[in-house]
Amino acid sequence: MIKEKAITYSLLAHIRNTGTLAKGPIDIFIPLIKRVLSEMNYRGVYEGKSLLEIQNVAKELYSIDFPIPVLKKILKEIANDLNTNEETAFYLYLDGSFSIKKYVFSDYEDIIQKKKSSIDEIENLFKSFCETSEIEGKKPESIFNFIEKNKYNLSKYISNSDDTINEDHTIEAQFVDYFKNIPSVYEVIKSIYLGSIIAGYIEYNSDDKKRDIELLLDTNFIVGLIDLNTPESTHTCRTLIEIAKQQDFKIRVLKITIEETQNLLQTKARYFDKSFLQKKVNPEDVYNACDRKNLKKIDLERIADNLEPTIEKFGISTIYQKKLEGEAKTGDDYLRLKNVRNSKKAALHDAIALLHVRKARTKRVRDFDKANAWFVNNSISSENDSYFLNKGYLPETIKADDLLNILWLSNPSVNKSIDGGDLADIGLTSIISLTLNNNLPKSRILRELDDNIHKYAKEEISDADIIRVATRITSKQLKDIERLNVLAEKDKESFVKRLEEEASKQKKIEESRQKKLEDLFRHFTTKLDSLEKKQKIYTEKEKKIDLIHEEKSSSEIKVSKLEKELIYQKNKNRAIQRNMWISKKIRKWRLKSWGELLLCLLIFGVFILILLRSANWSMDKLNSDINELSNNIIFSGFFTIFWTIVTIIYVRGLYDKYRNQSNILSFKNNLDIPKEYKDIKSL
Known about the structure:
Blueprint: H1 3-18, H2 30-42, E1 47-48, H3 51-62, H4 68-82, E2 90-92, E3 98-100, H5 109-131, H6 144-158, H7 170-178, H8 183-198, E4 214-217, H9 219-225, H10 231-246, E5 250-254, H11 255-270, H12 277-281, H13 286-293, H14 297-305, H15 307-312, E6 317-319, H16 322-329, H17 332-337, H18 344-361, E7 373-377, E8 397-399, H19 400-410, H20 412-417, H21 420-437, H22 443-457, H23 463-474, H24 481-490, H25 492-544, H26 549-614, H27 619-630, H28 633-658, H29 661-669
Parallel strand pairs: 4-5, 4-7, 5-6, 7-8
Antiparallel strand pairs: 1-3, 2-3
Helix pairs in contact: 1-5, 1-8, 2-3, 5-25, 6-8, 7-21, 8-21, 9-10, 9-11, 10-19, 10-21, 11-14, 16-18, 19-21, 22-24, 23-25, 24-25, 25-26, 26-28
């Protein structure tokens, strides 16, 4: 995606977040076309024979196509707004010709310059990020092509577009994921993503009719719904369920889907004690959710046993598929899916679901509004792309976040009930996860590597190094996993050495990346100093032309704009310094709890040493003394209080400081930010 389109998307998000769509969603584009008319006027164009002339200038400024019917509707709104009984500023004739009286529109010029500056900074950060990564072949040119991919995905549903972006966006996904916790960067990316969705208004012409819609939920959706995926995934699934209920959709799940989900959870429970690498490689893995929620093997088994009543609480009804099973087994879907699914049973499951949706629709459809049934996935793997636009017809499957995006576009009540920022978070998290997960080796290979690490390297390699190895797998920098597994069986020492080498490589990348990005932040500071010098030059020029009023006025405007830009850049720099200061405070805050916990453990250790000494270092005597002490009510009470303090206060405190986002946010909000890090309003 070229830079102009990124600026356009960011501007659309700004207009939407700061204004109100009183008449309809198309009104959000009115300021953009007003600016086009102003630009044409500036170029000396006061009339034209076709709306194509306006369309071409709009494409030049914004790099997006305005369909002629949509453009005509916008221009009619502009004419109604500008024209009065005394004066006609813009006139649109029946044959598509037009005339523009002298017209100036500059409401968003300062905003556009700020957006351009922010986007330039993001691109510079991305370039530096790429330079510190091991990238094979040609390096990506822009971070924004990654976001544009989402726009193409939506276009397939709402405008039957066949455009595709097939590039590997691994590095872009890593970049966005890396900066998710730095608001000054992530908010810019979010605004561009939200704008890409808003741009869909000019493609999607909904008839606004209320229809009887059925949503058939896939296994991965159920896993996300019951909070055994990422927190973001759970938010996506539960948001869609709430919206579906508000719209009176039928929400259903096949009995075979429940069984498949139960089998998945039971398999995860079976290998529970042998998993470490998998949850670090794949944040969407059930093991990762277990780690986050402190669930044990028995908890997974309990959740599997109680799955059906659990999903019933969400208002989901179960349907039985026995009548469809025989038909599905002889269909083309089953034959094709057997080659891409990990088992025949999984292939049959999907074939039945697709057949159910096809029968519910009664016929193939081309328009999204006419599709009355969908097979909803929490994330669709790449092999399902073949179902897109089969001879111009819509697929049976859809991602949960894509469905949310389209409902947000098409339905005013949904638009009001979902915050734009939440929608952008949902979508970005989804495309990051989908991109990174597509790079992962098969689960069997990962599980084998996990087993080998447990058997041959658990004592020799640290958890931090295993996480670094996992990072290299996710980023496709470590690909030959099967050869690594063979090496583990043949030569334990070489296997451990190879893991250490990979961890060392990743550590160097991370250190280099951090230094490079810090250097770039310092570059922004230098850029700020340069702006200050430019301001002095403009001020001196202003004095020299003081006698010529028109030129003086022009200079004052330039200085005013420069002052605004200077304040903006200063605040940008302060935001970076403020974030670094807050990070240091959070580290100190966490270290305090570590110190308290270690002190308690030290006291406990000293106590054990005293007991050992009194037992003449005999373990049998020690066990006897401990049993005798445990029968002592005073000692037992004291030990219970001590252990309660350790687990409930200190361990829970550490958990809250690392995992409880509300607690962390509360700490941040209560910090007394030094004056030198706060935003300034004037120079």
